[in-house]
Automatic annotation (TrEMBL):
Keywords: Cell inner membrane, Cell membrane, Membrane, Transmembrane, Transmembrane helix, Transport. This is Septum formation protein. One of its GO terms (cellular component) is plasma membrane. One of its GO terms (biological process) is amino acid transmembrane transport.
Length: 417
């Protein structure tokens, strides 16, 4: 009798929305809102207005279904403290765990390279257009910026984690303020471009990888899921579904408002120029607007967003590389840690000097691995692992999730062939 009473009480508690749920929704939301969002309008707007509308409608279910499935995957582990790697090892053995560790490193490491290029271009654009200086030699500017950011991580990890967490909400507020500020600049040039309905499916298909990257908050899913399991036990799936759904709706409303506001304030030619200059949309807006607010606030927000993203992804890439090398080498851990740090810093510096396309790097290097882990792995487990049977999503959700994951991977292959 007591057991039934406790179960009913727990169920009622699970179904009730509370302050902790709101905080977790904000945390998932904040994890996704990073530097990728600053490049999203350039790519998303390049295909025209109507494909952008369709992508906006797709982004919420695409984000929710994938993240709630990954959360359910973590819930399927016997150990309540298991993370994604532990869960993979339990279900697929050590070989599976090694594959996922390898894939996860190569999902995070390219993002560090992307931010090395992004921070160099942001600061260079700011110094030239807002400060009026001549360009500093690229090898020197990129080297100094990457070294300073890396030293900040190495010398104060706990402080950097607190700083980056605190930066999320001011960044979100400022981006929202900029979105509203741009409303008077809205024009119909984007909508006046006649849509090519025959080419629209391919336009949407090729844009999916950047949406996957920009809305991804999988790095925090393990921690989030373990906390819900601790609080709600066997009813945790109901709670994780609600929180991930709320975060997905928040992302759709906020990020797509920002994207539409930027796209409607610029012409297709201007978006193409921003892509050619390889800078974030905020840096481009700063260069063409006379408003002091955008001229100075835009690059500062871009700098803060890229820096905060660099901190988190650098730590993840470093830990992942150390883990990969440690499992295959008998070298002392300290030496592996130093070697891994030097490797990441030097390769990031080299790529920043070369200055490849940031959008190209996101699409070809970052998105495919994220899509494989976030969209395909949980659905595969639902079909193959007995422990996932009670946690399976509906067949329709599984099909939609797999289609999005396959689309993200195949569009990258198609674009690079």
């Amino acid at each position: 009798m007591n057991i039934n009473s406790n179960t009913i009480s727990t169920t009622e508690h699970t179904n009730k929305w509370n302050y902790q749920d709101f905080v977790w929704s904000l945390s998932l939301f904040g994890t996704a809102v990073g530097a990728g969002v600053l490049f999203l309008p350039i790519k998303a707007g390049a295909g025209g207005f109507w494909p952008l509308v369709i992508l906006a409608l797709l982004c919420a279910p695409m984000t929710w279904f994938a993240h709630k499935s990954l959360s359910r995957f973590v819930l399927s582990a016997k150990n309540p403290n298991a993370d994604i790697t532990d869960t993979v090892e339990e279900h697929f053995g050590k070989i599976g765990a090694n594959i996922i560790t390898f894939a996860y490193f190569f999902a995070i490491y390219p993002i560090v390279l992307i931010y090395g290029v992004g921070i160099t271009n942001t600061v260079d654009s700011f110094l030239v257009h807002q400060v009026g200086m001549a360009s500093i030699p690229r090898w020197l500017l990129s080297g100094c910026l990457i070294m300073l950011m890396t030293l900040a991580v190495v010398l104060g990890k706990s402080l950097m984690l607190k700083v980056t967490s605190a930066m999320v909400y001011p960044l979100v507020f400022i981006l929202f303020a900029l979105s509203v500020f741009l409303i008077p600049e809205w024009n119909t040039s984007m909508m006046e471009v006649a849509p090519n309905w025959g080419a629209m499916p391919s336009v949407i298909w090729l844009a999916i990888p950047l949406f996957v990257f920009s809305f991804n908050h999988s790095p925090i899913i393990s921690q989030f899921t373990k906390e819900q399991r601790r609080r709600y036990g066997d009813n945790a799936a109901t709670k994780t579904d609600k929180i991930t759904g709320t975060a997905a709706l928040m992302l759709m409303a906020f990020v797509m408002f920002f994207v539409f506001s930027v796209v409607l304030s610029l012409s297709p030619a201007q978006l193409a120029l921003a892509k050619e200059q390889n800078i974030s949309v905020l840096s481009y807006l700063a260069n063409i607007h006379q408003s002091p607010m955008i001229s100075y606030l835009g690059p500062i927000v871009a700098f803060a967003a890229i820096t905060s993203s660099y901190f988190g992804h650098f730590m993840g890439a470093h830990e992942g590389l150390v883990g990969l090398v440690k499992s295959r080498s008998s070298m002392p851990v300290k030496r592996i840690e130093k070697g891994s740090l030097i490797f990441i810093v030097v390769t990031t510096w080299i790529v920043a000097i070369i200055n490849p396309s940031i959008l190209g790097m996101i699409e070809s290097m970052g998105a495919p691995m994220i899509a494989a882990i976030l969209f395909l792995l949980p659905v595969f487990a639902m079909r193959k692992v007995a422990a996932m049977k009670p946690l399976r999503t509906s067949a329709l959700v599984q099909i939609f999730t797999v289609i999005c994951g396959v689309a993200a991977i195949t569009s990258v292959i198609y674009a690079t062939v």
